[in-house]
Design brief:
419 residues, Rossmann fold, 12-stranded mixed beta sheet, two-stranded parallel ribbon, binds zinc ion
Length: 419
């Protein structure tokens, strides 16, 4: 292995920390000390230099207080440094709890992304755990199913919701950002919580080095660490359930490891699958007025929910099964079942989710046509080879199986297990 040369530079002025890393002959990464941004909204920025390229990464927050930013930029840069296989030197102090968790965070990320490496993180002396925790409890909130589920579940303690511009909301899409901000301000007002908006360009760095699906948990953590002076507990809404859990950047094994003595990060909502979450939030008229699941860039013209993409149609399937589609103001009032047939074939991960939804739809037993349409969608890519059986026969066999199941004592295996 080639040598690692660590270079720490201190700018004039004393308080400017420069993080500098020389790779194992493969390049050079440096992150300058976070600098406070001027203006109405508080913020921090730092220069990230990789080889000869340098870019400014910033975070702005609609209201403070915010942290100095050392831990924020640690979370923001660690996965990139791992991908480059370079050590990270951080002259500033970080939380002892977070420092102790860094090896485990890296072990998990590296197991998911074998091309990455576990690296050394060099920091200053551990910070004394004397910082006073913030007063608030918050959750990340995009307006989607997982967000509403966690907010409503913990409504008695949550008093802040946090929307991030620059993750799924692209920074350059000003009309969509304005639309979502306006809707979420209304959600906050009607539910009696406070909306905090964060803007960051960190994806311009992150996307170049690490797959977003494994990186986004660290990015959420970077925002939580920035807001730690005001938020003592931060819920991260789960996108999986216990039954569909797969390697993913925001994960119950990973999210809590980004906690500090001051701020606790909690991965929340694994107990419910998508259909169960929608059945739950359908009880809220506010959720039914503002639910937003569509990725803005999937739809030209920037519809709040396009009603046609896979995420929209899957949500509409669940709303229809829950008997709530007509009440959800942000979706068309009816689901054309042929739109399911027009969706792209499901990949392996999405199949897990859709099978869970199908089980719920069949358990409800109110909508066999919907169940058939989902079966047809799944069968197009069924890895067990069910596509070789004519669809009508396959459906009939399933129905017979379900009828037989009712005659069998509960201790016996379910005939439709595995859908
Ligand atoms: Zn859509």
């Amino acid at each position: 292995m080639e040598d690692v040369s660590l270079t720490a530079v201190r700018r004039s002025g004393g308080d400017k920390i420069v993080l500098a890393v020389r790779a194992r002959g493969r390049g050079f990464v440096s992150v300058s000390a976070p600098t406070r941004l001027e203006g109405k909204c508080p913020g921090v920025s730092a220069r990230v230099r990789i080889d000869n390229e340098s870019s400014e990464v910033y975070y702005r927050v609609s209201e403070g207080p915010i942290a100095a930013g050392t831990e924020t930029f640690l979370a923001a840069s660690l996965p990139a440094a791992m991908m480059l296989g370079v050590d990270l030197e951080l002259p500033g102090s970080i939380s002892p709890r977070l420092s102790n968790a860094l090896p485990r965070i890296q072990t998990i990320l590296r197991s998911w992304v074998p091309d990455s490496s576990e690296i050394q993180v060099h920091t200053g002396p551990p910070r004394a755990a004397t910082r006073v925790p913030g007063h608030s409890v918050a959750c990340f909130f995009s307006g989607g199913v997982d967000s509403f589920y966690t907010l409503l579940k913990h409504h008695s303690e949550i008093d802040r919701i946090v929307l991030v511009h620059g993750f799924d909301l692209r920074l350059e899409d000003a009309p969509m950002r304005a639309k979502v901000s306006k809707a979420l301000r209304q959600v906050a007002k009607e539910l009696g919580v406070h909306l905090i908006e964060v803007e960051t360009n960190v994806r311009s760095l992150a996307d170049r080095y690490f797959p977003w699906r494994f990186y986004h948990g660290a990015m959420l953590a970077s925002v939580a660490l920035l807001l730690a002076p005001q938020i003592r507990r931060f819920y991260v809404p789960a996108s999986d359930s216990y039954a569909t859990l797969v390697p993913w950047g925001s994960h119950p094994l990973l999210d809590p490891l980004w906690s500090t003595e001051q701020m606790e990060l909690i991965h929340d909502g694994l107990e419910a699958n998508r259909l169960e979450k929608i059945e739950s939030i359908a009880l809220s008229n506010i959720a039914m007025r503002y639910l937003r699941v569509c990725f803005p860039w999937t739809e030209e013209g920037g519809a709040y929910n396009c009603g046609r993409c896979e995420k929209c149609v899957t949500t509409m399937i669940c709303l229809r099964s829950a008997g709530a589609l007509g009440r959800c103001a942000t979706f068309p009032p009816q689901l054309d079942l042929s739109s399911i047939a027009r969706l792209p074939p499901l990949d392996e991960l999405d199949q897990l989710d859709i099978r869970e939804i199908l089980r719920g739809v069949e358990r409800n037993g109110r909508d066999p046509l919907l169940a058939d349409a989902i079966h047809a969608w799944l069968a197009r890519r069924d890895p067990r080879g069910i596509t070789s059986i004519p669809m009508r026969v396959a459906r009939k066999l399933r129905r017979i199986g379900r009828r037989l199941q009712k005659l069998i004592p509960p201790s016996r295996p379910r005939l439709d297990q595995g859908f």
